Fold:
Amino acid sequence: MLRCRREMKEAGVLGINARNRDYIFPNNRRRYYPLVDNKLETKRLAESAGIACPPLYGVVEFQQQVSRLENILGEHRDFAVKPAKGSGGGGIIVIADRHSGGYVRTSGGIISMPDLKYHINNILSGLYSLGGANDVAMIEYRVRPLQLFKDISYQGVPDIRVIIYQGVPAMAMLRLPTRESDGKANLHMGGVGVGVKMDTGMTFGGIQRGAEIGAHPDTAVKLDDIVIPDWTKLLTIASRFESLINMGYIGVDIVIDEVKGPLILEVNARPGIAIQIANRCGLLHRLRAVDAHIAELSSPEEKVAFAQENFK
Structure:
């Protein structure tokens, strides 16, 4: 046990307690949490800064509005329904098309309009929200993943999680949906995390449930040497959020749409530490390097360049 702890310390592995004590508590003031715990607020903030997000079709805030859902949806044949305060992918329903009996989910199943309304009522009641607080339902554009990612995903949309410290991208991973995760790119549900080289955006290896894997469990496609497009642009978008929300340690989740390019999905004020396993690398050495040089860096472009040069 002592040897294991010593090896983890030498490798610069950031534990959950150290993450909270040394990085989240000192850098993320509580008064700014509503900006990231509410996806609708995050979206509005990003749009005000000219950062692209999945377009919003409508918001259901009160149960009286649920009866008018048909009007809110209008002619949209495909869309995503999300709880604004949800976490871990809970409560998200993605619709791929209309059907005579209702709507076709990306899984191929059919959900009727009464069932969709019932689901939205559950969102409003706080069934999927943090702490069970009353919530609102967002109806937005359905992201279409790049063809590049379709062979390494199961049904859902992959996203890229970037850890941002003082505006510097410290580490990143590609998160892939699986059958086990029900098509959601969430590691705790059984999704796959793939390490990404910070300088090139090239993937290497992968993990599922904490175990190393070399190929996607459902498609058997290898996870190495996939180059994420628009990599520097993607990191620069993520870097900008540090000043937007006044938080020093965050996880920024970005998707790449086949038409619209990189889009901000959400921001997390308490990003998990499994990203270190996916990257076969501890975070501590990188975070301390940022502390040592942050006074020399001002713009997001400078911070991204620093990360790409020093975190290869």
The chain has a mean pLDDT of 93. The first strand starts at residue 56 and ends at 60. The first helix runs from residue 2 to 10. The chain has twelve helices and 13 strands.
